[in-house]
Amino acid sequence: MKYQIIIPAHNEGQFLSVNLQSVADQTLTPIKVIVVNDHSTDNTEDIIDQFTAKYPFITKLNTTSSTEHMPGSKVINAFNKGLKQIDPDYDFLVKLDADTVLPPDYFKTISAIFHHNPRIGIAGGFIYEQDKDGNWNLNHPMDKDHVRGAFKAYSRSCFSAIDGLRNAMGWDTVDELLAQYHSFEIHTEKSLAVKHLRPLGKAYNKKARLLQGKAMYTMRYGLLISLIASLKMAIKHKKPKVFCDNMQGYFNAKKEKSNFLVNADEGKFIRQLRWKKIKAKLF
């Protein structure tokens, strides 16, 4: 199957070389890789240039934006700029983070997954991170049927049905909810171990947690589901302030009448799906 990759990169000089080499070494070569140099001030562009000179399927797109890291909006802004440069003839599209390292057969396996089941709309592997002793351990904190935003592959039909990615915190949840709304399946492949070179949640501060709460409102979760989800996150992180910040973000968004990311019918489906999963875990 033919596929293309978009890699948003802001000051990724520490990781980008090994990331791009793992892409270049794939047993199933992409037809195009667009590395979006998003206002980098380090050696990110130099690294991209080294790879574009060596591999004709890798291209560079320079863009400017805020230097502030904001989960969701900044990376999707860069992704969407890269999206304008892709070839419309592809079977699946990949949004890939610049701080990941893929096994050589990663996309050959993803291709087979899409090929054998046309109802699969989103696919990906599992995150592994290195501990202080140098061991690579599974760190996939979300539900095991959730594909991490760091390496999402979308079938062409699914990406079209969900109308691309939302430019907001929570984009990597709403995409899967909308995919299921359109009768697509989500597939996580345990055999695909992806190395993540930057610790998860490093940039998730109070402002990011407020945005998380806003995302729950704009995804039309409703108050009760948002309370449950926020409590679950606080328990997982062992930080009560996570709950407080999330709910503050939720109520701020409600007070400000923030625009919803999904329409009323999609929101109803999302709530029903959330309740189904909650009940499945309780009983």
UniProtKB/TrEMBL annotation:
GO molecular function term, any single one: hexosyltransferase activity
Signal peptide segment: none
InterPro entries assigned to the protein according to its UniProt record, in alphabetical order: Glyco_trans_2-like, Nucleotide-diphossugar_trans
Pfam families per the UniProt record, alphabetical: Glycos_transf_2
Highest taxon, organism lineage: Bacteria
Keywords for the protein's UniProt record, in alphabetical order: Transferase
Family annotation (SUPFAM superfamilies): Nucleotide-diphospho-sugar transferases
Coiled-coil ranges from the UniProt annotation: none
Domain Glycosyltransferase 2-like: 5-145
Name recorded for this polypeptide: Glycosyl transferase family 2
Native source species: Arenibacter certesii
